[in-house]
Automatic annotation (TrEMBL):
InterPro entries: AAA+_ATPase, ABC_ATPase_HisP-typ, ABC_transporter-like_ATP-bd, ABC_transporter-like_CS, MetN_ABC_transporter-like, P-loop_NTPase. GO terms for molecular function: ABC-type amino acid transporter activity; ATP binding; ATP hydrolysis activity. It comes from Micromonospora auratinigra. It is a peripheral membrane protein. It is found in: Cell membrane. Residues 11-243 form the ABC transporter domain. PROSITE patterns: ABC_TRANSPORTER_1, ABC_TRANSPORTER_2. Keywords: Amino-acid transport, ATP-binding, Cell membrane, Membrane, Nucleotide-binding, Transport. Belongs to the ABC transporter superfamily. It holds the Pfam family ABC_tran. This is Amino acid ABC transporter ATP-binding protein, PAAT family (TC 3.A.1.3.-).
Length: 247
C-alpha cells in the first residue's frame, strides 16, 4: 500500500478504569503505542479488550484514567472530532446494505468532513484502490465476500484520514480462506506507518506485524512487550496458560 496515510500519533492509555454497574471491566489498564507502531492486544474472552478499544475512541467514557494522543488527553476533544482522528473496524463490518460500496465510503466523508461530492468520490476511489477493490465501487455489500466487505469497512475508515486505527477482531467473522486478504491490508497499513491497536486471535499476525503485544487479563494489561519476548518468554503464568491454549 503506497499510501495515503497521514501523520500518525503516539497513543497512551493510562490507568483506565471502567465498571458496568458492579462489574469492574477495566481495572487500571495501561498501554503504550509509539507513533507509527502497531500494538496487538491478545487475551481471553471477557478480559476487556473490546471495552479498552471503545474507551480509546470514547464510545465509552472511562470512570478514571486517561487516553493520550501525542501526550494530549482525548477527553478534552469533542467526541465527533475524535472519531475522525481514530478510525475503528469491527468484527461485523457494519456497511449500509442498501448503498453501493462507493456510497458507503462517501457518506461519512460528506457528513463528517463536509466534503463536496466530487472530492468525496475521488478520496473514496483512492482508498478502494488501496484495499484492492477499485473494480467494486458500484457493487452492493451483499454482492461481495465477507473479506471484501471488511476491506470496504477499512477503506471507509481510512478515507477519513485517521491518525490511529483500532481493529476489534476484524477477521473473526470471516471464513478462513478470506482472513489472509484482510490481514494483508492491515499489515500494509502497519508498514505504511499508521499507529494501530489490533485486538486479534491471529497469533501469527501478532508475531509478525506487532511492535508490541499486550496480554489482557481481567481488565488489565498484565504483560506487554516485543512479540518474541511475550511469545517465547512469558513472565506470567496466566499468559503462559493462555498461549498454551491458542498456539
Ligand atoms: P473482550 O473483548 O475481551 O471479550 P469485553 O470488553 O467485550 O471483553 O467485555 C468485558 C466484560 O465486560 C465482559 O464480562 C462483558 O460481559 C462486559 N461488558 C461489556 N460491555 C458491556 C456493557 N455494555 N454492559 C455490561 N457489561 C458489559
Ligand atoms: Mg471483544
Amino acid at each position: 500500500m503506497s499510501t495515503a496515510t497521514t501523520g500518525s500519533v503516539s497513543l497512551a492509555v493510562r490507568d483506565v478504569h471502567l465498571a458496568f454497574g458492579a462489574h469492574r471491566v477495566l481495572r487500571g489498564a495501561d498501554l503504550d503505542v509509539a507513533r507509527g507502531a502497531t500494538a496487538c492486544v491478545i487475551g481471553p474472552s471477557g478480559s476487556g479488550k473490546s471495552t479498552l478499544l471503545r474507551t480509546i475512541n470514547r464510545l465509552i467514557e472511562p470512570d478514571r484514567g486517561d487516553v493520550l494522543l501525542d501526550g494530549r488527553s482525548v477527553l478534552a476533544d469533542d467526541p465527533d472530532a475524535l472519531r475522525q482522528r481514530i478510525g475503528m473496524v469491527f468484527q461485523q463490518f457494519n456497511l449500509f446494505p442498501h448503498l453501493t460500496v462507493l456510497r458507503n465510503i462517501t457518506l461519512a466523508l460528506r457528513r463528517l468532513k463536509k466534503l463536496p461530492e466530487e472530492e468525496a468520490v475521488r478520496l473514496a476511489r483512492e482508498q478502494l484502490d488501496l484495499v484492492g477493490l477499485a473494480g467494486r465501487a458500484d457493487s452492493r455489500p451483499a454482492q461481495l465476500s465477507g473479506g471484501q466487505q471488511q476491506r470496504v469497512a477499512i477503506a471507509r475508515a481510512l478515507a477519513l484520514r485517521p491518525e490511529v486505527m483500532l481493529f476489534d477482531e476484524a477477521t473473526s467473522a470471516l471464513d478462513p480462506e478470506l482472513v489472509k486478504g484482510v490481514l494483508a491490508v492491515m499489515a500494509d497499513l502497519a508498514s505504511a506507518g499508521m499507529t494501530m491497536v489490533v485486538v486479534t486471535h491471529e497469533m501469527g499476525f501478532a508475531r509478525e506485524v506487532a511492535d508490541t503485544v499486550a496480554f489482557m487479563d481481567r481488565g488489565v494489561v498484565l504483560e506487554a512487550g516485543e512479540p518474541a519476548a511475550v511469545f517465547e518468554d512469558p513472565r506470567h503464568d496466566r499468559l503462559r496458560r493462555f498461549l498454551s491454549q491458542v498456539l
